From TrEMBL:
A Pfam family recorded for this sequence: Transglut_core
Top-rank taxon: Bacteria
PANTHER family: BLL5557 PROTEIN (PTHR33490:SF12), BLR5614 PROTEIN-RELATED (PTHR33490)
Domain (Transglutaminase-like): residue spans on this chain: 143-209
Protein name: Transglutaminase-like domain-containing protein
Source organism: Methylobacterium thuringiense
Length: 255
């Protein structure tokens, strides 16, 4: 199995306590980084039930996602070479099926932040969140036509529409607790959002929630969910139980 359960290297300096994956029964592991600099753990799972767990404290700024209404969109010819991959179609972001739709909907929108926000607004209204309707094979186009899904479907559709409009976009997954918002009745899970490249940097957007949030903890990023799979198995397996928790811990200050 390949497990992508660690925080992204960009958040490692924020760890307050060690982040260690624990296996029961004990299992030998090998850790490596993939082409997107995500931390991957490679194991040969023993027969029978295997429990993988981790628990850690991480420091967060407490600030919400950055909002920059004046961030401009680059012309394609001005983009850095390593950004171009995030304009291309990918496994779950089938831009070829969405290009005409995207240009009809957003071609008249002001390029840059306003155009991205228009895409996020559209996806937020287009897809109905339903945890019971998760589908690992659903593409961005499928989500657009079916109008239902989970957070990854919101992210895939928004990413694909941005790419259709020549805005580099990449998929992200990680922890997102119910911090600074009213309690949410849905069971906690890992979350998916996306980033766009505007004005020489990456900005965070979230088509499911469509509001800046506090406490995102990035685990992995890539072209789509295929690059950020929490677990990849090479053989039969059954997920018996799955628990995710992200709880706010208030720092104590010396008095």
């Amino acid at each position: 199995m390949i497990l992508m359960l660690n925080v992204h290297p960009s958040r490692i300096p924020d760890l307050v306590t060690p982040e260690i994956l624990t296996f029961d029964p004990p299992t030998s592991v090998r850790v490596y980084r993939d082409d997107f600099d995500n931390v991957c753990t490679r194991i040969v799972a023993p027969p029978g039930r295997v429990t993988v767990s981790t628990d850690f404290l991480i420091h967060d700024s407490g600030e919400a996602d950055v909002v920059a209404p004046d961030a401009r969109q680059h012309d394609v010819q001005d983009l850095p070479d390593d950004i171009l991959i995030y304009l291309l179609g990918s496994r779950y972001c089938d831009t070829d099926k969405l290009s005409a739709i995207a240009w009809a909907l957003f071609g008249a929108k002001k390029p840059g932040w306003a155009r991205v926000q228009a895409i996020v607004d559209y996806v937020h209204e287009r897809i109905r969140f339903d945890y019971q309707r998760a589908d690992a094979t659903r593409t961005a186009f499928d989500g657009h036509e079916g109008g239902e899904g989970v957070c990854r479907d919101f992210a895939h559709l928004a990413v694909a529409l941005c790419r259709c409009m020549n805005i580099p976009a990449r998929y992200c997954t990680g922890y997102l607790g119910d911090i600074c918002i009213p309690p949410v009745p849905d069971p906690m899970d890992f979350s998916a959002w996306f980033e766009v490249y505007l004005d020489g940097r990456w900005y965070t957007f979230d088509a499911r929630h469509n509001t800046p949030r506090v406490g995102r903890i990035l685990m992995a990023r890539g072209r789509d969910a295929a690059d950020c799979a929490i677990s990849t198995n090479f053989g039969a397996q059954q997920l018996v139980r799955f628990d995710v928790h992200t709880d706010e811990v208030i720092e104590e200050t010396a008095g």
